[in-house]
Amino acid sequence: MGRLRLVVAGIDDTVPAVRRLVLAAPQGGELPSYTPGSHLVLDVPAGAGRERALANAYSLVGEGLHPSRYEIAVLLCDPHGGAAGGSAWVHTLRTGDPVTAMPPRSSFAPVQAATRHLLVAAGIGITPLVSHLRFHARWGREAELLYLHRAGRGALLDEVAELTGGVASPFHDRADLLSRLRERLLDQPIGTHLYTCGPTGFMDLVVSEAQEAGWPASRIHLEHFGLDDLDPGEPFDVTVGERRFEVASGVSLLEAMEQQGYAVPNLCRQGVCGECRLDLGPATTGVWHRDLYLTDDDKAAGDCAMACVSRALPAADGRSHLEVSL
Amino acid sequence: MTGTATESAPHPPHYTSVPDWSREPLVQPVDPLGRVHTVIEVVDGDRVATRAVVAGWLAALAGAQVRHHTCEDTSAAVAALEDDLVAARVGHRVLVAGSADACLAVRAAGVRAGLADDEMGFGVVSVATRTVWCVHCSAATVAELALDDVVACSGCTRNLLVYPHVSRRTGQHLGFMVDAEEA
After folding, report:
1. A213 touches chain B (CB under 8 A)
2. Nearest Cα to A253, choosing from A292, A323, A313, A306?
3. Is A214 within 8 Å of B1 when comparing Cβ atoms?
4. Which residues, at least 6 apart from A313, have a Cβ–Cβ distance to it below 8 Å?
5. Which residues contact A116 (CB under 8 A, 6 or more apart)?
6. Given CB 3.0 to 4.6 Å as the disulfide criterion, which of A78, A193, A197, A222 pairs with A125?
7. Closest Cβ opposite residue B91 in set A213, A217, A301
């Protein structure tokens, strides 16, 4: 699908470090619909400290049926602290600026067959869950929210209060939220699904608490913002047809292939979008996948990998090799 | 993990709606992560084999909170499950031992009550009997049948092909008229 051409139609900087951005078609009118919990991938141009153009995903706040505007809430992440610079760019936009984006995509939709929904958010992770709450409110679904944020830094608090009837009072202390979460995980009727969005470490805690309470994997749903810094990994070698080259530690397969002159389609460069999937041949010794895109079955088959995050695993003889079929 | 693991692709294919345990007798393991376990023993088939399956599960669940029901037939088993699930909380697991036909029917009740596939396990002692739902008259025919066999519908006498598809909601196989072009 082609890119959407949008313009900035509104900006709200009321909450420190969280910018709410409204995007619309230049001439107004209807935009593609999306399912609750979807995200929009914005094209972030190179420049202003960004070595290359980025494609960053931001969760949509709205509900998604015949929208005339897309609204996102973006936390300012400091490029000096290691952020890639996409959110800093969003914070420089002005009303009327043009923006291009991929149409909304979803990997975090409410489960239609669920009889009840338990939502657990931390910080800016509230964004896709507000989208869920709007959907549940419209269709009269049972939903319960636990929301953790720093005092004075809560995003979307008006919506949260409105959509939960004011009962979901936010937590400012992680231990308080966890103790409430433990209680609530033990008391959900069969048919409830759990959704969590927030920093990776927070989601890991939520998942481990749920597992501890006996929740099976099929009832637990996560929305990743991206991956934390990955292990640089061991070097390995690659063959593409007749050519053979090495991928050094700390260099991704995608970067190595680009240096070799191959054009590998890619988008997020962090194992989420699936754009850079490569087929692997039988000479491959093993794959350390590390992506969030392939299913467990795909990974077990071992015949494909995500160039941006996957690496070779050594065979019994110590050789680490990927045979790439383009 | 190797690049040539495709030989060990699951068989029968994982994309069919017919569970592997209704093609050949299989006993799935208990899920030790569950907090409460309902164990249902349907004894209208091979009682001895069914009892042995359940004994294995109960031993594996020693110390866990277990509700064990011995049921004379499928409808009693469905009633016992539905009763247990009324107040059940997420964290509950269900194990069903008996014929594949009984297991499919009890699974359907679990699905209707909101249980997920990874909350149910089955111990099958026989796959001989299947229930076939007629797409023409909606009657259910119960008989000793293999997949792809043909059986006369107990409702409308049409010759039904036992199609390799099982409804998750009813636990019955799809049956449709095999000789519609000729008849």
Report:
1. yes
2. A306
3. no
4. A285, A286, A287, A288, A320, B1
5. A141, A142, A143, A144, A188, A189, A191, A192, A193
6. A197
7. A213
DSSP letter assigned to residue A315: -
Best CATH choice for the domain A4-106 from the list 2.40.30.10, 3.40.1570.10, 3.90.79.10, 2.40.30.170: 2.40.30.10
- For chain A, domain boundaries: 4-106, 116-227, 231-325
Interchain pair B114, A187: CB under 8 A: no
B64: which residues sit within 8 A by CB, 6+ positions away?
A: B32, B34, B36, B37
**Cα of A227 vs its chain's centroid, Å:** 8
Judge whether residue B13 has pLDDT over 60.
no
A85-114 residues touching B, CB cutoff 8 A: 113-114
What's the Rg (C-alpha) of chain A? Answer: 21
Give the chain B residue whose CA is nearest to the CA of A303.
B3
**Contacts with A261 (C-beta within 8 Å, 6 or more apart), sequence order:** none
Domains of chain B in start order, with CATH, are: 20-126 (3.40.50), 129-182 (no CATH)
For residue A58, the one-letter residue type is: Y
ipTM of the complex in this document: 0.85
The phi, psi pair for B7, rounded to 5°, reads -60, -30
Instruction: Give chain B positions within 8 Å (CB) of A323.
Output: 3
Would you call A216 and B116 a contact, using CB atoms and an 8 Å cutoff? Answer: yes
Q: How confident is the model at residue B8 (pLDDT cuts 50, 70, 90)?
A: very low
Tell me the CA end-to-end span of chain A in Å, nearest whole number: 22
Q: Which residues contact A255 (CB under 8 A, 6 or more apart)?
A: none
**Beta carbons of B6 and A301 less than 8 Å apart:** yes
Quote the pLDDT of residue B11: 47
Tell me the two tokens of residue B108. 């359907």
B3 vs A187, A213, A286: nearest CB: A286
For the structural domain made of A231-325, what CATH number should be given?
A: 3.10.20.30
Comparing A176 with A2, which gets the higher pLDDT? A176
Question: Dihedral angle at the C-alpha atoms of A125, A131, A135, A137, nearest 10 degrees?
Answer: 70
Q: B6 contacts in A (CB within 8 Å)?
A: 301-303
**What fold does the segment set A116-227 form as a domain?**
Rossmann fold (3.40.50)
Residues in chain A: 326
Q: B25 to chain A, minimum CA–CA distance in Å?
A: 24
In which band, very low, low, confident or very high, does the pLDDT at A230 lie, cut at 50, 70 and 90? Answer: low
What sign does the dihedral A248-A251-A252-A254 (CA atoms) show? negative
